[in-house]
């Protein structure tokens, strides 16, 4: 069942019970949004996205807030930009902006590197043809306002959101350091479990042995990151 904004507010109020008051109830919506803003800086499997744009001939300066998706927050650290040429994928190497400044920016060819400065993505070489550029990124989220509003975090990170909101409330409104620490520890555990699930989803490996039931069965894996 997909939970919405109203469900979260109700569940947090239920957890607070006698420790709540009108001021705290009024603050719960903003605390939920605040926690989502905080954790959307992290890499989960549910807040990543994939899209593509067209690189135009000679254009090596891309503005993320106009050319990238409106929900773009930051590029994947390993596979952020991939150029596609004749159905073959070429991951672009990220370089230091200082290094980029020493390049001959008038040189054209098939792009193979990029640098990022604030909201500018600088491509090198300048494209000598039109290319598809695949963008793997993590999303930012609109503020939750209406009771029926929902998003990826509400769907996938219930324990993380609720426990962190409760930790903030007990720390900043109730000034109960012991309960704040307890809820914060629960939130940290939820975060760790979500990261483990993400790592398992990204793991690579192989199964050896003809039958999983025989003693020769062995599963090996390694994490990509």
List the defining traits of the structure above.
225 residues, disordered C terminus, single chain, five-stranded antiparallel beta sheet, 13 strands, alpha+beta, four-stranded mixed beta sheet, 37% helix
Topology:
Layout: H1 5-16, H2 22-39, E1 48-55, E2 61-63, H3 64-67, E3 72-75, E4 81-85, E5 88-91, E6 93-94, H4 97-100, E7 108-109, E8 113-117, E9 120-124, E10 126-127, E11 131-139, H5 152-156, H6 158-172, H7 177-202, E12 204-208, E13 218-222
Parallel strand pairs: 6-8, 7-10
Antiparallel strand pairs: 1-11, 2-9, 3-11, 4-5, 4-11, 8-9, 12-13
Can you walk through the features of this model?
By secondary structure, the protein is an alpha+beta fold. The protein has two domains: 5-43 and 141-203, no CATH class; 48-139, no CATH class. Helix content is 37%, strand content 26%. It contains seven helices and 13 strands. The strands form four sheets. Strands 1, 3, 4, 5 and 11 form a five-stranded antiparallel beta sheet that branches. Strand 4 and strand 5 form a beta hairpin. The two termini are 31 Å apart. The model is unreliable at 211-225 (pLDDT under 50).
């Amino acid at each position: 069942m997909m939970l919405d904004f109203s469900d979260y507010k109700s569940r947090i109020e239920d957890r607070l019970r006698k420790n709540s008051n009108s001021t705290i109830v009024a603050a719960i919506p903003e605390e939920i949004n605040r926690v989502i803003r905080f954790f959307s800086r992290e890499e989960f499997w549910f807040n990543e996205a994939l899209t593509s744009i067209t690189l135009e001939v000679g254009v090596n300066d891309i503005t993320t807030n106009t050319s990238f998706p409106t929900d773009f927050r930051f590029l994947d650290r390993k596979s952020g930009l991939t150029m596609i040429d004749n159905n073959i994928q070429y991951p672009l190497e990220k370089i230091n902006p200082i290094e980029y400044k020493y390049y001959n920016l008038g040189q054209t060819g098939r792009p193979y590197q990029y640098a990022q400065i604030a909201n500018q993505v600088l491509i090198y070489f300048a494209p000598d043809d039109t290319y598809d550029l695949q963008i793997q990124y993590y999303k930012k989220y609109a503020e939750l306002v209406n009771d029926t509003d929902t998003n990826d975090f509400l769907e996938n990170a219930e324990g993380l959101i609720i426990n962190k909101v409760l930790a903030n409330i007990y720390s900043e409104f109730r000034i109960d350091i012991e309960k704040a620490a307890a809820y914060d520890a629960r939130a940290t555990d939820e975060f760790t479990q979500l990261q483990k699930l993400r790592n398992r989803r990204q793991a690579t490996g192989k199964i050896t042995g003809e039958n999983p039931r025989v003693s020769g069965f062995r599963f090996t894996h390694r994490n990509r990151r």
